[in-house]
Amino acid sequence: MRIALLIAALLVLSGCQGMFQTKGNVQVPIVSIGTQGVEPVLTQNTPPREVFEGSSFSMIVTLANLGTADVDQGVYSLSYDPQYLYLPRQQAIGSFAARGKSTFNPRGGEKQLNFVFDTKPLGPQLQGYPATLTFTACYPYETSAPLIVCIDTDITGKQPNKACMPQTQSFGSGEGAPVAVATVETRMLPHEDPNRIRPEFVLTLRNLGGGGLVAQQYYREACSGRALGEDAWNVVSVDAALSDTMLTCTPTPVKVKQTGDTRVICTLPEGIPLTAGTYTSPLTVTVGYGYLKSINAQVNLVKPNI
Amino acid sequence: MADTAREGSPTGFLFLAIVVHFFDALLRYGTTPIAIGSSPGSPGLWVLFFFLYGMLFVFANNNPVYRSMGKSLLGVSLIAYIWGPFWSIIPGYFPALKYVAALVILIAPFWLIVTFYATQSFPKLSMWYSLIWMFIVVFALFPNVQQFATEQGHPLPDSLSPGMVYQYGIEKLKDSGRNVVLYFSNAGKTIGEDVQRQLAIASGDYYTGKVDNAAKQKLGVYLENFHATDQMLYPSAPIDAVVTMKAETLDTELNIAVACDADGNVSASKVLPKNAFTVLTYDQYDIDCIWNKGVLGVGAHTLNFRSEFDFTTRAYLKSYLMDQDRLREYRRQNVDPLASIPDKNPVAVYTSGPVRIGMSLGKQPIPLGKNGDALQSWGVTVENSWEGKVLGITGLTLAVPKGIAINDPASIGAVLTTCDAVPEEERVTCDDTLVNVYALTADELQSPGYKNLTVKSLRIPLTITDPTKVLGKAPIGVQNFKASVQYRYLLERSLPVQVREEPK
Fold it and tell me: In angstroms, what separates the C-alpha of B420 from chain A's closest C-alpha?
């Protein structure tokens, strides 16, 4: 029985070969690519394009987590014209949770929200009204970029046949989050201690998700009408670890440019002994931020007798 | 003098021929007030004609060219001329003879044209005179001239006369003249309105809007095709002028009062089918304004049709509001917070009807400060957009979203009120928990600015009383500013007519 289930599962998974990578003899789905986080998507035909006055309609929003980070406490808010539409006020705001994509859940989690609006009378002589609905989702998110970098303590280049060479690596497809670590440039710099070298990593960050970026602690306010303050917008926190050792990154906090590249320099102040030689090492970069994404819809309220 | 006559002067002959021809064509056969022909005219005129023809005969004898061919032509003309007195004695049961006689009379004056060509003295003048004359003869056969002649009491074959063309042309010229006078008297009013409008635009105190996009119906009252039922009007018959009135409304009934007068002071004897109408959705009426016989005397008159009705124009301006600081933050980042919104620059939308309401709140989104801060002022323009008159504004209500108030409403002659103040049919859309309602006072509406309104703009100062009520808990608040104007409107149509003396 178990063998039959396994075979069936393999047959199903074999249909999605392009989304898999091979590790040894086992194919695993590639989830850590892409530039999307939690995406609000309107279900087809909701809301309808035209609705009669004095009736009701649904607007179904699916919050699909298309990135790799889990969202436990996302919030949303809905703007609408209260003079023409009625929605119980408590429904206009709320919270959601959606798991990120993973090897075991390559589609990511989803949360579906159904808003049922009542339309009010248009009033005498008025024959139509275009009602605007704006849905905004705000959530804390994280970009996690596990990389392999080359540490080369021989900065004079005397050693032949090195295991690797420090170089610039590019990651154009993103890491499964709206803020992408686009490039990592590895540099080996002299240390004040002549027996050590100081590795430095120049990270290039880009907001590729098409939404707004706020400091993670402000993500809830981002979905409200309140001002956040200059220091809240486009601010991310960057943590980097070379193997298990935390690096020091500057500037802190990082203000991501609206367009173009934002450079962050992470370094290991204590350095690495020259005796360590040349080797590859895992570099884990974690970028934390709050993200907000909006969608709009327009519904034309009309009179039924026209 | 005798020598000149003997040698024959072409110039003198032609001049005399044209005069004779002109009078001949104009005066013959009862087509002018000087009736000759079917009712033979005064003996004096006949003597005059004999004299003129005699003069022509003398000239013709002294002109070598004319002498050779003109006598027979002059003879034809004289036969046509003398035919006139016998016209009335041709028996009615002998219609064929009447038609032949009419055609002879119509064609006979061609002798002059033939004469012109024969002399070869004035080729260009001959050509133009011939063309004009041929046009007149052909035009005499046109149906509208024939109808005109019939209405004048000259049915076929009497109507086959060039003189009828003269009379028809003169009648049309008179009508045109009356229309020109009417046009210029109205133009003064129109120019005055345009000046007011241009001044408002020039001062920046003019706000635009567009008619309700979904408006598939033209709401209000429309007057079309105001005309007299008869082309010829006489004091001895009732005078009937008809207008088509179309009226359309949604949701609210439309009460229309109609009236007719002549020259502004002679009311119609009857207005049919009635002079008051109530329209619930759509109706079309042909309304007859009838002046009994003898009420309008001979002469030019202007018939007026007046339609008065109460109407309401409503307008809204959708607006996006945002916390001022947050908006600044967006702008510093060069981010447009409304980038993905389909109608991010909404304009005021007003309901179909005779009055237009324009509104503006400045650039959107509108920055919303803290409690007590001023919001940018709300501009409202009320404008007469039809050719009728706004007789008076009977109500003007303004509704702003809850959380915003009009600062010092007395400055614009308004008072804070409730949804109870709006017209009854609008109450269903008015919610005191969502809007603050202001109404202009009766005293304010009696002020000169609202009398015979062409264009009136208000600059309404606003203040923020509770931003959270405006925004709710969302980054962008979607709200509406509404204005509603109730007024009495007058539509007029005028028709210049000529009441003629009875045909003899």
Answer: 15
